[in-house]
Amino acid sequence: MNESLALLVNSSGVFVAMMVAVTVLLLLAERYLLNYGVCKVDINKGERILEVEGGNTLLHGLLENEIFIPSACGGHGTCGFCKATVTEGGGDVLPTEVTFLSRAEQRAGVRLSCQVKIRNDLKIQIPEDLFNVKMFAGRVISTRSVTHDIKEIRFSCDEPNEINQRPGQYVQIQIPTPDGPVFRAYSISSPASAKNYVELNVRLIPNGVGSTYIHNMKEGDPVNFTGPYGEFHLNEDPDTEIICVGGGAGMAPMKDIIYSIYEKWPDRSVWLFFGCRGTRDVFYLDEYRELAKQHPNFKIKYALSDPLKDGEKWDGETGFIHLSVDKHIQGDTPRQAFLCGPPPMIDAVMKILNDKGLPEKEVFYDKF
What we know:
Strand content: 25-35%
Distance between the termini: 51 Å
Low-confidence stretches: 5-9
């Protein structure tokens, strides 16, 4: 019985090794024996036409031409960020893509660019904003802990020396790993007027590749990042009230939006709702209170969801933050909302805002 089991195990091991070897040989054969020549990639109906060497992925071909599609996993097909619409020449959707694409997206030709091989001419469509994304080389200007697990960190923009972001956008930080560089996305917390640096709020995730690396960075350390990315669009009408709702590191885009607004519209009405578990998760509250003294139409509501511990003092609200939104947002006023935080929080706030008559098109959100 033991001999049979050992023979079975050995046979299985040999089979797996043979399959791996065959896979490697096929990949090498495709790369070195098959010559696809130079292929054209037509972007946005002729807006840009690239000539790239066939055989590589679409993601690789775009990066070589400094068109930076969001991608966190280094092109391994595990993050689902690098979406592009392939209208001609992309072939069939692969099994590795199905998990990340809805049926509607598949029907529309949306693909993961890291899974599309360039074997012939392609026609694709990508958001116009991606033409403005750049790779930045910078360094750490400053770093400080704002809570027990969140650090505020600033990176200079050295090359190029200026970044132009809309309030609420994000950058992708390049993280070195033994398997090659990967990227992790973090929202910008500095205002749009800050052109020569970006500030982030980074929460430490246990064993997180990106957050662990960033939390260990020191002043002067080099950094590379791409950006800006993101689909948040602030309404420019000063009569439109802005509602910001965040939790944890979801503070970053809220801070960017709030300070960008008050640099341009000192009298604009803005609400900030921020949910924390306990007092040790509260940050920027004193800074916002000082800002509210200068701008009376800025209203701040922090709420703690966990019971207070013995000896703790808190003069703010308690309970989940969506309940504070429900309590304070009243009346039929033109509004726009920005939400950033855990999915349950976002879903609860979305329902309340919809019940109060705010159309979904006026709500921008980022779940993490």
